[in-house]
Design a protein that fits this description.
elongated; alpha/beta; 383 residues; Rossmann fold; 12 strands; 43% helix; 3 domains; seven-stranded mixed β-sheet; Dihydrodipicolinate Reductase, domain 2
């Protein structure tokens, strides 16, 4: 299939290389800019450039269009234009701006089109995952833990966002739908962030508990060049199974999905699940605690307000009854002055604590987050 490219993201470079090697002709006229164009020129790849993205969509020779942009609105606009021109669309998710809202809109475009809309996911790096399968289909009852360690060239915001999304997608390729996320950053004074650990689990009250999963992101060292990345599955009987993570061929999966567009919906659902985990990780970093994946800010605020209302009613009742008891005790008991002072302090203490508790919500909402807290997910207001 004739495949043209529109984009700036270097994340599309492996796919661009594979398409170039698979064809004995020059690539169709494409729109390459930024880091993606620089990579192609530095590699000496012959290119033919189109005047605009619209020209790529209208070219009747093109059958597949790869979009590798950072602007989600532009991705949606060009996706709609491509499917209207009866082109299959491959979307390389943005580094920093991808969110479940993007995949939701892509799902709507897919439902209204006759061509495929395909998101490129991290689990495509698993050679053991067949083109017609979205998950590996592991048995959760037989597994104790899943672990994955990724070495990044640097711990910049963009590298962390891409590494996090790739790692989480590789872990969820197991088929497990996790409901809680805990993220811990390890920092060194004067150096900054040296590693990020993400733990995935299920809520304790869930009907079926899933084996926990752990992802570690750290800077690459000299020894990492000779080591391959492994997704390690530890079974309850002590056995370990390792799934190699590498640069698996992308074109066979894309061609399969172009021929079976009905399967694209499951891949978009998988992308949404991964991006929801990325958003939950961002909240865990900001709040420095375990958070639920499916988070409802309104519910958390309403629970806080309900609790404060109940406490306030209790404080008013305490003040009223305490005043009556204080007056009665003053008539019946002869106590030293220090005892009466202590009684008045104890009587007013619940009111002081209640008023201080009112500051918890604005303090937790306005607390500054980690400067490395960006994960590529959209920001949500904290509750």
């Amino acid at each position: 299939m004739k495949t043209a490219f529109v984009g700036t993201s270097s994340l599309a470079w492996p796919l661009l290389q594979e398409v170039s090697r698979a064809s004995d002709q020059l690539l169709p006229p494409s729109v390459l800019q930024g880091a993606l164009r620089d990579r192609a020129l530095s590699a000496g790849m012959p290119l033919r450039l189109a005047a605009s993205a619209e020209d790529v969509m209208l070219d009747p020779a093109n059958q597949v269009v790869v979009l590798a942009l950072e602007d989600c609105d532009e991705i949606l606009r060009l996706t709609r234009a491509a499917v209207q021109a009866e082109k299959h669309v491959v979307v390389v998710l943005p580094e920093l701006t991808a969110s479940p809202a993007l995949t939701f809109e892509l799902q709507l475009v897919l439902d209204e089109s006759q061509t495929a809309v395909i998101p490129v996911l991290g689990r495509w790096q698993l050679p053991q995952l067949p083109p017609d399968r979205v998950v590996l289909g592991l048995d959760p009852d037989a597994i104790r833990q899943l672990t994955l360690e990724l070495s990044l060239p640097e711990l910049s915001d963009a590298a962390l966002a891409v590494g996090l999304r790739t790692g989480l997608d590789l872990l969820t390729a197991s088929g497990f739908l996790y409901s809680q996320v805990t993220c811990l950053d390890q920092t060194v004074p004067g150096v900054g962030l040296i590693s990020r650990m993400v733990s995935l689990s299920t809520q304790p009250e869930a009907e079926r508990l899933l084996p926990p999963a752990a992802l570690t992101l750290r800077p690459a060292g000299p020894a990492d060049l000779a080591q391959s990345v492994q997704l390690t599955v530890t079974y309850r009987d002590g056995r370990q199974q390792q799934f190699a993570v590498g640069e698996a061929a992308l074109l066979p999966r894309i061609l399969h999905l172009c021929r079976h567009r009905a399967e694209c919906s499951a891949w978009l659902d998988a992308a949404s699940a991964t991006l929801e985990l990325c958003e939950a990780t961002a909240r865990s970093i900001r709040r420095r605690r375990t958070v639920d994946v499916h988070f409802d800010a309104g519910t958390e605020r309403s629970v806080f307000k309900s609790q404060m209302t109940a406490f306030g009613c209790g404080v008013l009742t305490w003040l009223l009854l305490g005043m009556v008891a204080y007056l009665i005790a003053g008539q019946l008991l002869a106590l030293p002055d220090w005892a009466w002072h202590t009684a008045r302090i104890l009587w007013m203490l619940p009111l002081a604590l209640f008023l201080m508790a009112q500051l918890l919500l604005p303090l937790t909402r306005n607390r500054g987050g980690n400067p490395r807290g960006k994960t590529g997910a959209s920001e949500e207001p904290d509750g």
